[in-house]
TrEMBL record:
Keywords: Membrane, Transmembrane, Transmembrane helix. It comes from Microbacterium kribbense. The chain crosses the membrane at residues 42-62, 74-94, 100-121, 133-153, 165-184, 205-234, 240-263, 275-293, 299-326. This is Major facilitator superfamily (MFS) profile domain-containing protein. It comes from the Bacteria.
Amino acid sequence: MTRTSRGLILVLGHAVLIQIIIFGMRPSLSYAALEFGSSPAFLGVLSAMYALPALFLALPAGRIVDVIGERGSMLIGAVTVVAAAFVAVVGVGSLPLVSLAAVLLGGGQMFTVLAQQSYIGGISTRHRSDATFGLYGFAASFGQTIGPLLLALPGEHTGTPPLGLVFTISLICAIVMFGVSLFIRSPARSTISARTGMLRTAGGVLTAKGLSGALIAGSLVLASVDIFIAYAPLIGQDRAIPAVVISIILVVRSLASMASRLFLGVFSHAFGRRWLLVGSIVLSAVTLGAFAFDLPAGVLIAFAFGYGFVVGICQPITMSWISLIAPPGTRGLAMSMRLAANRLGQTVLPAALGLLAASAGADGVLGASSIVLLAAAWSGMGVPADTDDIEPDSVEGQ
C-alpha cells in the first residue's frame, strides 16, 4: 500500500469519526439544554453558538492550515473536540457548560474538516479529484448516518437519549480521532509568505476563475438540504402523512446522497464538471419543488430519492473544484471561505424563507427554495468546464 493510499484511508476514517461525533452530540446538547429547563427558543441560540466559530474564524483557521499543514490542524481540531466532549460529559446539568461545549464543538469541527478537505485536495491528481472528493463525501455521509443512531441507545427515559452515554462515546471517538491524526502526514504543498495579509490573500483567492460561483452554488444547495430536513415534519402535519413516512423520506434522501457520491468520478468523466454541477442543481430544484404539491406518499418517497441523489453531487464536486482553482499555497484558505459561505447560507436563507411559513406553509417555503436552487445553478455556470481550463501553475500539490 502506498503512502498516499494509506493516508487517504486514515483521512476517510477521520471524516467518519468527526461526523459521528457531530451528529451524535449536536442533538444531544439540545436535549441536555431542554433537560436543564431552557425554553425551545434557546435551541436556536445553541445552534448559533455552534456556527459562530465557522462564521467568524474560518478565514484565520484556513490560513493556519496553509501555514502549519493539515496534520497540525487536525491535531488542533481533535484536541478541541476532545475538550468539547469532556465539557459535555461533566456539564450535562449546566446550561453554561452545555453552551461552551457547543462552541468548542463548532471550533473543533471547523479545524478538522478544513484540514481534511485540504488534505484530499493535496493528494488528488487533476483528473481524479472528483472521484477522491466523492469518496470523502461518502465517508462524511456514512458518519452522518451513524451519529444519530446514538440517540436510539436505551436510557432511563423514553423521551430522552442517555446523554451521559452519548457524550462518553463521543469523547472516546474524539480520542481515537486524535490518535488517527498522529499517523497522518501532510501532503506536499506550496509555501506562502506569512507576511502577506490574510485579507489580501483572501481577496486574491476570490479572483480565481469560477471560485465565487462555486461558493454561492455550494452554500445555496447546502441551505436547501437544511430547509428540506427542517420542513419535512411540517409537510407531514399539514397533509396528515404519518411520521414513519416522513422518517422514510429523510432516510431515503440521505442514502441516495451517499450512493451518488460513490459514482462522482464516473459522472464527472461522462458529463464534464460544469454541466454535472449545473445539471444536478437544476434537477435538485425540480425534485425539491415537487414537494410543494400534495402528492401521494409513495411518489414523495421517489422524489426524495431523486432529490437526495442529485443534491449529493454538488458539495463534493465544489470541494474538488475549489481545491483545483485555489492559487498555490491557499487551498486551506479557499476551503475556509467555502465553509464560511456555507454557514452564512445555512443561517440567512432558512431565516429569510422561514418568513413564508406563516402565510404559505411548508409548500411555499420548499417552492421558494427550489427557485433559489435555480439561482445556484446559474452561479454554477461561471465555473471552469474542467481542470484543463485551469492554468497548471494554479494547481498545487499535483
